[in-house]
TrEMBL record:
Organism: Leeuwenhoekiella aestuarii
UniProt keyword annotations, A-Z: Hydrolase
Signal sequence, renumbered to the chain: none
Domain CN hydrolase intervals: 6-265
InterPro entries found in the cross-reference section: Aliph_Amidase/BUP, C-N_Hydrolase, C-N_Hydrolase_sf
GO biological process, one term: putrescine biosynthetic process from arginine
Protein name: N-carbamoylputrescine amidase
Matches recorded under Pfam families: CN_hydrolase (PF00795)
Gene Ontology MF: a single term: N-carbamoylputrescine amidase activity
Length: 295
């Protein structure tokens, strides 16, 4: 029988390196998180490389890997050794011409508890993900593991309340958001505070509206690899919040860190009993939410 309390861990890392070096680095940080008590451990989005979506270049498809290849093998062995759940976001090569921004959820025995493929794909300046990633086709899922019932959504998914709701309605206790988000340095002074604030607020809102814990794992550092561009300054500030949006742990802007927080299912149940948002949903009037616009 699963415990009513368990500890989750979010890793905030600089990943501006090669796949080989990032793999070894992330394995070390997962070990450290497990030593500190982490039972469900989440890496940032696309852990194995720099954020290559700053431009559209077919050479970047070399960073993709087939299912159950290097990343799965390495973290499966590690999860089994440590007895922890690991969320591993990676660049999936499904077949020639079809690639996904995906995440393994690896259980404590090293087995695959679930696979998530990012559903919402952005196409913004220097976040040219539509060039690389086919939208996910597995839907929004709660994954049952030996430690937790959890939902994994990826970065751009975090702006969509529908994704959080559909995942929470399946029983997710925690929503994990592995992420790669940051500032365009030339815009930071004017827009930076509001951009970061919106990012935090929307996920805290998901926590409140669904009565769930939320954990966001971001990367850090300036990644500036394209000539004559300013790159992206990843803003870090990974966080974990409770079901009332209360901050339980938050990282800095520019330091590599392990965030830990306790998930208390009795607290979650108490919050939902006192704030019964699920009870009062008017599902008989929400049918039009599936339309693009009401015109």
């Amino acid at each position: 029988m699963k415990s009513r309390k368990y500890t989750i861990a979010v890793l905030q890392l600089n990943l501006n390196n090669t796949p080989e070096n990032n793999l070894e680095k992330c394995k070390k940080w997962v070990r450290d998180a497990a030593v500190k008590g982490g039972e469900v451990i989440c890496l940032p989005e696309l852990y194995s490389s720099h954020y290559f979506c700053q431009d559209e270049d077919v050479d970047n498809f070399k960073y993709a890997e087939p299912l159950y290849d290097v990343s799965f093998t390495a973290f499966s062995e590690l999860a089994k050794e440590l007895g922890v759940v690991i969320i591993v976001p990676f660049f999936e090569k499904r077949m020639s011409g079809i690639y996904h921004n995906s995440a393994y959820i690896i259980d404590t025995d090293g087995s695959e508890a679930g696979l998530y493929r990012k559903m919402h794909i952005p196409d913004d300046p220097h976040f040219y993900e539509k060039f690389y990633f086919t939208p996910g086709d597995l839907g929004f899922k709660t994954i049952k593991t030996k430690k937790a019932d959890l939902g994994t959504l990826i970065c751009w998914d975090q702006w969509y309340p529908e994704a959080a709701r559909l995942t929470a309605l399946q029983g997710a206790e925690v929503l994990f958001y592995p992420t790669a988000i940051g500032w365009h340095p030339q815009e930071k002074a004017q827009y930076g505070v509001n951009q970061h604030g919106a990012w935090m607020n929307v996920m805290k809102g998901h926590a409140v509206a669904n009565g769930v814990f939320v954990a966001a794992a971001n990367r850090i550092g300036l990644e500036q690899y394209i000539p004559d561009t300013n790159g992206i300054e990843f803003w870090g500030q990974s966080f974990i919040c409770g079901p009332q949006g209360e901050i339980l742990a938050q990282a800095s802007v520019d330091q590599e860190e392990i965030l830990l927080a306790e998930v208390d299912l009795d607290l979650q149940e108490n919050v939902r009993q006192n704030w019964p948002f699920f009870r009062d949903r008017r599902i008989d009037f929400y049918g039009e939410i599936t339309k693009r616009a009401l015109d």
